[in-house]
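User: My instructor asked us to take a sequence, write out its structure as tokens, and then describe one feature of it. I'm not sure where to start. Here is the sequence I was given:
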Amino acid sequence: MKILKQRRTKEKNQPEVSKWMSRFKQREMKADAKTSVSNRKLIHKLYGLIALIVLICVIAAGLIFTNASRVEETSASLDQSARFQQDFSNLVNELNTTSIKYYQLVSSGYSKDVVEDAEESLSNARTIFDELNQTISSDSSLHNYFTNLDTALTDYRSIYEENFTTIFVGDEQDRIAMRVTPVITRNLQVIENVNSRIVSQLEAERETVSQEMETALQTSSTVIMGALLILIIVPLITLLIFAATLKQGVTYVMNRIRHYHEGDLAFTQSKSRKDEFGLIDERLSKMGSQLDQLIKQSQSVATEVVNVVRTTSDQSDQQMQGMNDIEMMMQAFSDEMEKQTDFTGTISATTEEVSASAEEIQTSMQHMNARLQGVKSISVNGKDLMIVLEQTMNKLTDQTYSTKARIDSIESKLDHITSFIQGIDDIADQTNLLAINASIEAAKAGKEGRTFAVVADEIRKLSQGTNTFSNQTKDVLASLLEEVEAVVKTFESFERQTKQSLDQTKQSTELFETIAVDNEKLTQEQSEINQSVEQINLAIEDVATSVTELANGATGLQHKIQEVTNIIEDQGKRQEELTTNVKSLEETAGRLVNK
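Assistant: Let's start with the prediction itself. The structure tokens for your sequence are:
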């Protein structure tokens, strides 16, 4: 009766428990959804670190490019001034060559080769003059000097066309010499004056441009040095801070895993985190709480099963003892009936004794029937408890699958963090490439590039340090993955044990069903025994009426007693089998408790 009450109480509380579990799961899902959105500070820090390094690289590259452009512009101006001076020097040489050729013609006489050389020099001078004149603006100080040169070129062209296009000799040569010589002398003075002034002005401009270039180089060196120092120091500091945060997070999670490995499922962290490691720790905490609750529920259900099995075993022993008593009583009754057959003369005394024995048998049969009804009730209750236990084990299996899925989710997040570390490796490779390029440029620059070489070496060291940090982080993540895989294997082992417990629970249910069927058979056999006892009572009443009928009835009763004895023997064998099954069920329940 007590077991039936407990079962009814559990059936009443079952809907409330299921409602509470569903509400708890809904709250847990909402909380997980919120935390998955908000608690991602570590990933944000990693994104921020990458963005900061990229921004610093862009700014440094922009500063270096700006100063390099300025140096390049200054160098281009210096090259342009040098080319202008070279072209102007060629122009003066061509004009002087033309003057010399003209002097040679007026002093030595007409020569076709000299005339052609003079015409070629004059054409070259005009070509160079036109090219240089295009590069000079009208408001430039050189414009007036080039105007004088243009006049000299025009005079030389006029002298050539007027005097040297035809052959001349004698007096005509003297007249040409008198006309041409003053013009050539004057042009030579103009050319020399213009040359000296333009050369001095170009030298002054070149010196100014050289100073500007030197200033630009110094500024560029300072800016590049500062930018590279920032590029080294800021990423190094941020990487160290991020590495410390990552190390603390891994230690934080490993602390809980170590306590779980030691069996402390109720472990609580001394402080909480709001990043991904805090989310992992929160999921592990929920997982540990659920496992602790499931283990306690399993132990509670197993304890109840053991109690029920022990009660059933005690009642079975009592029933076995009752069957032995009945067998002894039936044996005594058989002996009495044999004496009644031998001594017919003592019919009255024997009839009274048989009547008393029949009443005692009927009372014993009623008592045994009541016990069989109790065993039947216990068997039904045991079967129901086994069904409830099977449902509980199924829920435990489902929760084990859910927990395993969460561990798989943690493993995927660790893979995601590994992909971010790979991104850091790519940045380190790019930094190393930048250092190599800087070393090449420094080698090209010579002495002026020694500073770049030092900075390039520092960048290369930074890249190597970043690679070392990335490898260490990968090792830590690999260790964490191994721990997660160990937890997954533990859950798989727990899943196998749960399946074994479920199979044993199903076997227990089948045993209870067998017990119920045997009890049905026992009840039917008890009914037959009651009918036999009623027939004995009728036979005793007939014996009181007629001695002859009593003798015949005694003989028939003896046969029926033999049948009852056989039935009782069969019942004893079945009861022994029932006792063996109950003991097997008790051992199974004991193993379930130990697990």
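For the description part of your assignment, you could build on this observation: The longest helix spans residues 347-445. Try explaining in your own words what that tells you about the chain.
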